[in-house]
Amino acid sequence: MTNSRIVMHIDFDYFFAQIEEREDPSIKDKPVVVCVYSGRREDSGVVSTANYIAREYGVKSGMPITLAKRKLRDVESVFLPVNHSLYETVSERIMNTVRSFADQFEQVGIDEAFLDVTERLNGNFEKSAELANAVREAIFLKEGISCSIGIGPNKIVAKIAAGRKKPNGLTIVRPDEVQQFLSSLSVRELVGVGRKTEKVLHSLGIRTIGDLTDYKIENLIEALGSSLGTFLHNVALGIDESPVKEKAGVNSISRMVTLKEDTRDLEMIMNQIDRLTVDVYSSVTEQHLDFRSATVLVVLSDLRMRSRTRTFENPIEKLEVVQKTTRHLLEQVLEVESHSFRRVGIKLSNFLKKQGQKRLTDFDS
DNA sequence: GTATGCTTTCGGC
DNA sequence: TTACGGCCGAAAGCATAC
């Protein structure tokens, strides 16, 4: 018995493609590639997910559909368009099953979740494998979907563990194994370490999480600031106190489309922007959210991305105000950018916090 | 100088 | 040889407040 938490991370295997296999089992022994078709021309678009047979041929998420077809040209394979509403429905049902196994539950995206199971295991790590297998069995019996599970004393370790053995894997990292487990991993594996932070760490001779343990916390803070420096120092020691907690709600809602062809024609683009604005505005309104910010997103002909945001002091209420704002933001992007536009999108964000939440501006100087 | 929040870009799925 | 979505939160960079 220890006083350590027991945290589980669940990751549904090749989720979209696995659901398609379940819908039509006759495709299971072939490569299955789930695609987002942009509609621009036949086969333009990218791969969303592929099953493991397709992955053996080098097919990966984010790859152009045409390239995936080339890799699979010699083998009978199945290309399907994404059916997002189906995946949402299945995800919701699985999440409800998973939630019933947790003291605390936190969904991450459509196919991942954290469970704090400390209490129901009385803090006994040795019983965690049994519980993990019970969860996997419940999901498989109810929904026919396999998943991979990682277990550790905190979220960071559980998440990394879940990625070690896939598909249908289980990886348990006991408290006394944490530092050994983390030490050889790249610092890049950690949430909080992006490209720039990785570069700073490399300049200090730090490449792995193990390398971090040789560094004094003061030096990490000096190089990276107190927040990130303290975080990394703790992680290297296997410490992560972030709780498993249901998220309050989304931070933003956005819609994006690929234009029929690259263009800088204001009216042509405005047409799409207006449609997207109505669409995203109704979605936000249906969810009874108040928002203060509107953003225009643009992908240029060379696939670089640009955006412009306007934030109001008070919630935006009228659709006409959003439309006027997004039109203006679009004109701004057109002005500063000479390339033509390939895709455009709208994002609404800065949702108002519900009453009773701690105020962010409580100074005591 | 450091903390905080906003804007823009990056990157995972 | 090229090829190329849609959504989200995280990361990075900057401005401002203390």
Structural overview:
With 365 residues, the chain is α+β, with helices and mostly antiparallel strands. It contains 13 helices and 12 strands. Strand 10 and strand 11 form a beta hairpin. Helix 4 packs antiparallel against helix 5 (128-143), helix 10 (217-224) packs across helix 11 and helix 12 (266-286) crosses helix 13 (319-336). Mean pLDDT is 90; it is low at 355-365. The chain binds a DNA duplex (13 and 18 nucleotides) through residues 15-16, 35-38, 43-49, 61-67, 70, 82, 84, 109-112, 191-197, 225-227, 250-258, 293, 295, 299, 303-309, 311, 342-343, 345, 347, 350, 360, 363, 365.
Keywords, please?
alpha+beta, DNA-binding, 365 residues, four-stranded antiparallel sheet, five-stranded mixed sheet, 13 helices, disordered C terminus
Q: Supply the helix-strand structural class.
A: alpha+beta
- Number of distinct beta strands: 12
- Number of alpha- plus pi-helical segments: 13
What quaternary form is this? single chain
- Globally, the shape reads globular
Percent in strands = 15-25%
Q: Main beta sheet, described?
A: 5 strands, mixed
In whole angstroms, the N-to-C terminal distance is 46 Å
Q: List the uncertain runs.
A: 355-365
